[in-house]
Design goal:
Length: 429
């Protein structure tokens, strides 16, 4: 892949989104919005909205940090996932970042770091934190040998399903692609749409496509095509996964009206038993517990393998969820401490809630973890590879084009062949 002119792209592309990013806040954590006279305030942006499974973990971690640091208040402002991507890029371009902010590591944040707007935090990663958070977990927050963020979870993509619906309809739980397609047809024959998805929130559709592509092309080939430039995307294994998406669309496997449904709306149809399957990240384990009327009806399996290039233990995911510190913060020492204290707390509480797989050491009682989250944690522990989701792994301009092409593929504006050729052309720019 030819080297991107990241600085220019950031100035031109991101600046265009400045106005679009304004007004996208959906919630400010109660209890943290106001600060008493004389308090030191740190502002934190995240996507842990009130409906997000990580919201409670953030709230508890913030409360712990404030209790341990009298006179410090963390003002937590939250934003919906898709609008936040525009918001954070605009804030970087305008030099208006808060003290602490959520972002996705890897390619998504590379331009932020290269713009000089993010604080290197190696000096705050003390021996205490190093003993509890493996250096390997911070690989997606490390750029040119320097650390720019801390993480709290190791999410993976998986296929969640309603065990009760499978049992009541006499349909075997699939372990291979052929078995999955047979299950889809069996549900359709019974008048049940089998798979929930959001196309309005394109990242949800992308998670399905990414997982199928990983299980078709394999982790080495995906990395070579998306980041190294040594593998063309116009390849039979990438075409196969695009073809599978079209096959699922054409057979009516996805819920009707997905192009107008948000992830919250689409996943609600899974929780209430309208659809029996949903491909998502491990955070759905926590959402099932809080949002499904009968959490015991649900279970999870790895995404089926499509070819010999991949194994069932290859997963989309990894420790990409990251908190970073703005280079312009007025309180760098406090923010540098907070980024590790908060991510350690979020890691603990999210795992106990079943919302995420802990990236930090689990030095607390975990006997009450829900079975789905425990199974997902075992998947992560036994994984042979982790591959970041495409829109995070790729540079920002490639990711935007990828999501647009994927929507076009879903609605039938382009064919699978046109999709892989367009992807190859974009990645070669």
């Amino acid at each position: 892949m030819k080297r991107k002119l990241i600085g220019m792209a950031l100035a031109l592309v991101l600046a265009m989104g400045t106005l679009a990013g304004c007004g996208s806040k959906t919630e400010t954590a109660e209890g943290n919005a106001g600060t008493a006279k004389g308090d030191t305030a740190l502002t934190l942006w995240s996507i842990a909205t009130e409906s997000d499974s990580f919201n409670r973990a953030y709230t508890q971690a913030i409360a712990d940090f404030e209790a341990a640091n009298p006179g410090v208040k963390v003002v937590h402002e939250t934003f919906e996932n898709e609008s936040y991507k525009t918001k954070i890029k605009s804030a970087v371009a305008a030099n208006e970042l808060p003290d602490l902010f959520y972002t996705w590591g890897g390619g998504f944040s590379k331009a932020f770091v290269e713009s000089g707007k993010v604080l290197a935090i190696d000096g705050y990663f003390t021996d205490e934190y190093k003993a509890e958070l493996p250096q390997a977990a911070l690989s997606y927050a490390t750029y040119d040998g320097k650390l720019y963020g801390s993480t709290y979870t190791t999410p993976v993509s998986a296929l969640f399903y309603n065990r009760k619906m499978f049992e009541e309809n006499g349909i075997p739980v699939p372990t291979t692609w052929d078995e999955w397609m047979a299950a889809n047809r069996a549900f359709l024959d019974k008048g049940i749409t089998p798979i929930g998805v959001s196309v309005k929130d394109t990242w949800v559709l992308a998670m399905t496509h990414d997982a199928l592509t990983l299980k078709s092309a394999g982790p080495e080939k995906v990395a070579a095509a998306l980041t190294e430039g040594s593998q063309s995307y116009d390849d039979p294994d990438f075409l196969a996964s695009a073809g599978k998406i079209k096959e699922l669309v054409d057979m009516g496997a996805f819920i009707s009206g997905a192009t107008g449904l948000s992830n919250d709306e689409a996943s609600a149809l899974f929780y209430n038993g309208t659809v029996p399957m949903y491909l998502s990240g491990s955070w759905m384990g926590g959402s099932i517990v809080t949002d499904a009327p009968n959490p015991e009806d649900f279970d999870v399996i790895p995404v089926p393998v499509l070819s010999g290039n991949a194994q069932s233990t290859d997963f989309m995911g990894g420790a990409v969820d990251t908190l970073m510190v703005a280079a312009g913060t007025k309180n760098p020492d406090l923010a540098g401490k907070a980024v590790f204290e908060l991510t350690r707390g979020i890691s603990k509480y999210a795992y106990l809630d079943g919302a995420g797989i802990a990236a930090w050491e689990k030095n607390y009682d975990e006997s009450g973890i829900n079975p789905i989250t425990k199974k997902l944690a075992d998947y992560a522990a036994e994984a042979t590879s982790f591959t970041m989701w495409f829109d995070t792994l790729m540079d920002a301009d490639d990711a935007g084009e990828y999501l647009a092409l994927l929507q076009g593929l879903y609605v039938g504006n382009i064919s699978p062949e046109e999709f892989v050729k367009a992807m190859a052309a974009q990645l070669d720019k």
